[in-house]
Amino acid sequence: MSVNLHGSSATYAPECLTLDFSPWLANQKLNYSNVVEMLDSDDFYEFERKVQGGTSVDELTYHGGGHLGVGDDLGIMGNVYSSAGDPSFYLHHANLDRLWNKWQQRGNSFLFPWYFFRLDC
What we know:
Layout: H1 23-29, H2 32-39, H3 44-52, H4 62-71, H5 87-105
């Protein structure tokens, strides 16, 4: 199982919509205990690390687990460049936004740990 790169983002590479479910990965990375651990983060940096994880299967967390749990090796969701072509991409990212909102409602700051934006605007 790997993150598929299929050329560069500028290369025209039409593909059919394919799914390649990995129930094992989905059960490991998208479970309730992982969500609770994510929501218990003390600051945005910790929350973001628990959402994003890494690129190896062992390091995957909720974000990558959602992509590869549905896309695995052969599906569109597992392809970095074409995952947005799969309708489940938007459900997955909407759920990530929902979890971020839940984390914020627990009284956590919505600000990033570094300042990207001027605060005096």
